[in-house]
Amino acid sequence: MKGIWIARFLNLKRKPVVLIMMTVMTLVMAYVVGSSSNGKMSVSVAVDGTEMSQAVLEKLKEEDGYSLIEITAEELQQKAKKDIRMVGIGLKENSYTIYSASDSDNVRNLSLRIESAYSNISFKKQVIQVGGVEAWKDIEISLQEDQAFHIQTEAMDESEVFRYDNALQSLFGFTLFFVFYTVSINVQFILEDKRTGVWNRLKLASVSKFQLYVGHLSFSYIIGLLQVMLVLFVFRYVLGTNMYGGFWKVGIIAAIYVLLVMAFSVFVISLVKTVSQSSIIISLVAVAFAMIGGAYWPLEIVQSEALLAMKWISPIYYAMESMKQVTVYEGTFGSIWTYVSMMVVIAIVLLMVGISLLEKRTERYHSSE
Amino acid sequence: MLQAINLSKKYKTKVVVKEVNVELFAGESVGLLGPNGAGKSTTISMLSSLVQPSSGDVLWNEKSIAKNPDPLRKALGVVPQEIALYPELSARENLAFFGRVNGLKGELLATRITEVLTKIGLLDRQKDIVKTFSGGMKRRLNIGSALLHKPSILIMDEPTVGIDPQSRAYILETVKQFVADGMTLLYTSHYMEEVEMLCDKIYIMDQGKIIAHGTKEELKELVSDNQTIELKTNLLTENFEKNLKEQFPQATFRIDEEILTISMSKSEEPLANIFAIAAASNVVITSAIVKVPSLEDVFLHLTGKALRD
């Protein structure tokens, strides 16, 4: 087994491109997609320095759905000329200007909110001018009490409340997606060794089947896990991504997920004859699993019942949900035991079926007839 | 002694090896000769304990290897038909890997690697990556990888497939030296001249069965009553061939690259008749060679087809 590890390590040392590429791709994609606007509308804002414009800006900051970028009035003018997609606001003492290439619902909605902010602030100012701060407090209380409806949002089950963290969605999604390739490419060495006759040479050297499989699979597993942990580490401790205190829980889930991917890869190579056939299947399946498993987008926004029903066949789904549970939802291991046990059970079944199919097929490699 | 007793192998419904019996004594060099698809590779896979026979048994020093193949495996070096090497590793790294899995380590491993590299003529290329090697060099390293643990039996499965004549000659000379050094050899090939050059005893296989075996002389004795005549003509017409077949109905005819080969009984005196038929058919014979029997003739005689058909 040690010999297999040395050979595989030397091989990796000579051809590290795939591993490096997959790791870099994960880092870049997760960073680029994860650090985008969090699903919020990006708005450039310039104030004229008056008390009113500053107060309106503060009011807008309290609104959900906008990512405000403060710039100067000159910068706003220039940006409006250069960037056709930009949405910007120029706030003044008694008026405002919206810069937008289109008159969309989003822009109209933004306009309403600005007007509402101006009107509320003016009203408050007038009340304070006439009756003082105490009068405003009384009005605030009476407004609260006289509300026609008091709305309180609550879910029967805490897990049904949709929480979304774009940075973590991208990080977990791309990490789980790219490691699929790393592990599969490494597992394919078994197929290659069988095809070239190296496998037989090792058997003739009295290396047991158990040692052969453990040697190859443990190496593939460790490489996959190292990639995942490296990416998670960089995001958590270098880029400072908030993991809601669930970093190590995510690491443990990743360890189980990599095992499942390894088992799945063994199953795939047991069905095909060549490495290129296996690569094609893995490429197609990895993308499909990522889509239906919620790696690219949260499944909560998916409307199709058929697509949602298929999520159960995707290994990415179990890992993605578990990782989100222990981070965004701040859940414990108890809340994800179903997903984790599903991953372990599927991994064991796929490994057993895969290895027995591989062994049946192996005899064919011994004979050129 | 390595013995195959009534070995058969069946894949689903297809029987690829049928009741094969082979004996290999210490110091012998034995050839397994047959066309592609004859069952040679399956037979040696069963002999080397890689494939379980569907029926029959393999004995190593009179003990079945079915339950305990390890004693045989320790004594065995197998050179597969495929290049069973890691292309990204250097020649020395490959040998170190295979030596290590065969239980060699430290100083002993380093010494054996150098010995093997010298033997296969790759000492000066030991640090080069295998994927940069020529086909012949890869084949040599493939052989070297089977020699590290000093096996007493070497099984070689078509070790010269797909290489240039110069590399082939080098490999054959190397193997000849192994035989001269007393190594027991089982050599499979569909190249008759290789088996004839290297082996004392030959088994001829076709369609999964051993159809003849014995020493080269014993096998040639099977066709000692035969003679082979190779004719080169200016124009090989159908009429000429038809007339020859009418004249010599017992003979077998084969055309290979404009050479007409006729195998017939020695009792006949054919040359005068052949020239007469040629003249009558307006064909000019440019050369006529009467040949002594070869293993190729033996195969032709036994199966009615050429070895490389």
UniProtKB/TrEMBL annotation, chain A:
GO annotation, cellular component aspect: plasma membrane
GO MF annotations for this entry? ABC-type transporter activity
Q: Which residues form the ABC transmembrane type-2 domain?
A: 133-361
Annotated TM spans: 16-34, 171-191, 212-235, 247-272, 279-299, 336-358
Protein name in UniProt? ABC-2 type transport system permease protein
Q: Where in the cell is it found?
A: Cell membrane
Instruction: Name the family the entry cites.
Output: Belongs to the ABC-2 integral membrane protein family.
Q: Note whether Transmembrane occurs among the keywords.
A: yes
Keywords on record: Cell membrane, Membrane, Transmembrane, Transmembrane helix, Transport
The reply on keyword Protein transport is no
Identify its membrane topology class. Answer: Multi-pass membrane protein
Q: What is the lineage of its organism?
A: Bacteria, Bacillati, Bacillota, Bacilli, Bacillales
InterPro entries in UniProt: ABC-2_transporter_component (IPR051449), ABC2_TM (IPR013525), ABC2_TM_bact-type (IPR047817)
TrEMBL record, chain B:
Q: Which UniProt keywords apply?
A: ATP-binding, Nucleotide-binding
Taxonomic superkingdom: Bacteria
One MF term from GO for this chain?
A: ATP hydrolysis activity
Q: Which InterPro entries does the record match to this protein?
A: AAA+_ATPase, ABC_transporter-like_ATP-bd, ABC_transporter-like_CS, P-loop_NTPase
Boundaries of every ABC transporter domain copy? 2-232
Can the keyword Nuclease be found in this entry's annotation? no
Task: Cite the PROSITE patterns for this sequence.
Answer: ABC_TRANSPORTER_1 (PS00211), ABC_TRANSPORTER_2 (PS50893)
Signal sequence, renumbered to the chain = none
Protein's UniProt keywords contain Nucleotide-binding: yes
Name used for this protein in its record: ABC-2 type transport system ATP-binding protein
In its UniProt entry, the species of origin is given as: Psychrobacillus psychrotolerans
